[in-house]
Design a protein that fits this description.
six-stranded mixed sheet, alpha+beta, Rossmann fold, binds adenosine-5'-triphosphate, 371 residues, 8 helices
Length: 371
């Protein structure tokens, strides 16, 4: 089912002793989620992700704007009538009930036309248990399961009512690193099989990029960019998005554009056609550096970290805003650690230029300086 958020705003009265005004948790948010897709809602703590999710499921009413499920305006529909399945970070299972009873629980409260027979409830519970691969654990209590298994039970419970959309709020946060990876692949598989339109909230950019068909990056209640993960990574609309996506993070330098050339300090790093002279931030992705004896950008070499297939050359440059510059380079490239300096060419497609004031991306056409 397609889901549309139209100019959604949510304001809360400010909390605390000195509170006077209002907090805008979500500001004029417009997103169209195509039918059957998994979208990742991504942003730092406090950016409004949970508020957006609570507006979608009906736990909160928007101050302004509308929500549609398909063609139906659900803005004023109570939560229990929206047909939404929810999965939370803390599983929220009933500890005294078995897995089977936990999964069946939401079906037992159905009334009127929706009421199901006992056999039908059991049949549905078994069907979703098989889907999330916990059908052999049905008689256990949650305390006898691993974190990953508990989260599967929570997913089964959210799916058993055959929701129109599925909402997941940081569902992997309580799992250790290995289980996180496994469970996120599981969620992807389950979502593909069921084709339920799913919104997945996380502050972890890598998690969002790996699992989502589309990501929505938010900051301070405002949507910054919507797109396929790779597109957003390759063409961030502003410095915030560029910095938020990618590990190690993008290296940000203070720079200038003068006469069609991007300067970092005294180094002329790239030809940039079609840009007026101005002060900028130049962001260079870690994979955007190429070691070269005549490289345009000179940095102080701090050391080399071995990563296996790649190495990370760690250096500094006075114009760089990051504590150190991390450049990821193939392990086969030899680095002369004796000289104290290192020189790089930069890959134009890995360089993003932002206006120093507005921090918006400045498009440019280029060829590498010195070529
Ligand atoms: N009930 C409320 N009353 C007042 N302010 C609120 C309320 N709920 C959220 N806020 C504020 O709205 C903003 C967005 O909060 P929200 O919980 O949606 O962010 P989040 O991105 O989900 O953060 P986190 O990742 O830490 O959960 C924050 O500034 C928060 O303090």
């Amino acid at each position: 089912m397609k889901v549309v958020l139209e100019n959604l705003t949510k304001k809360f009265p400010e909390r605390g002793r000195k509170a006077r005004g209002e907090v805008t948790a979500v500001s004029d948010m417009s997103v169209e989620i195509p039918d059957g897709k998994l979208i990742g809602l991504l942003g730092p703590s406090g950016c409004g992700k949970s508020t957006a999710l609570n507006l979608l499921c009906g736990l909160l009413k928007p101050t302004d704007g509308r929500i549609f499920f398909g063609e139906e305006d659900v803005t004023n529909l109570p939560a229990e009538k929206r047909g939404v399945g929810m999965v939370f970070q803390n599983y929220a299972l009933y500890p005294h009930l078995t897995v089977r009873q936990n999964i069946v629980f939401p079906l037992e409260n159905l009334r009127g036309k929706e009421k199901l027979s006992k056999e039908e409830m059991q049949r549905r519970a078994m069907e979703v248990a098989k889907l999330v691969q916990i059908d052999e654990l049905m008689e256990r209590k949650p305390g006898e399961l691993s974190g990953g298994q508990q989260q599967r039970v929570a997913i089964a419970r959210a799916l058993v009512k055959m929701p129109r959309i599925l909402l997941m709020d940081e569902p992997l946060s309580n799992l250790d690193a290995r289980l996180r990876l496994q469970t996120r692949e599981e969620i992807r598989r389950i979502q593909r099989e069921t084709k339920i339109t799913t919104v997945f909230v996380t502050h972890d950019q890598e998690e969002a990029m790996s699992i989502s068909d589309m990501i929505v990056v938010m900051n301070r209640g405002v949507v910054q960019q919507i797109g396929k993960p790779q597109e957003v990574y390759d063409r961030p609309v502003n410095l915030f998005v560029a910095k938020f996506l990618g590990t190690p993070p993008i290296n940000v330098f203070r720079g200038q554009i003068r006469q069609g050339m991007l300067y970092i300090g005294k180094d002329a790093v790239l030809r940039v056609q079609g840009c007026a002279d101005r002060e900028v931030f130049a962001g260079i992705r870690p994979e955007g550096f190429v070691l070269h004896p005549q490289g345009a950008l000179t940095c102080h070499l701090n050391g080399v970290e071995v990563l296996g297939r790649d190495i990370s050359v760690v250096s500094t440059n006075e114009a760089c805003e990051n504590t150190v510059i991390r450049s990821i380079i193939s392990a086969e490239s030899g680095v002369d650690t004796g000289s104290g300096t290192v020189r790089f060419h930069v890959k134009p497609e890995k360089v993003h230029i932002f206006d120093r004031e507005t921090q918006e991306r400045i498009p440019f056409e280029t060829e590498r300086a010195g070529e």
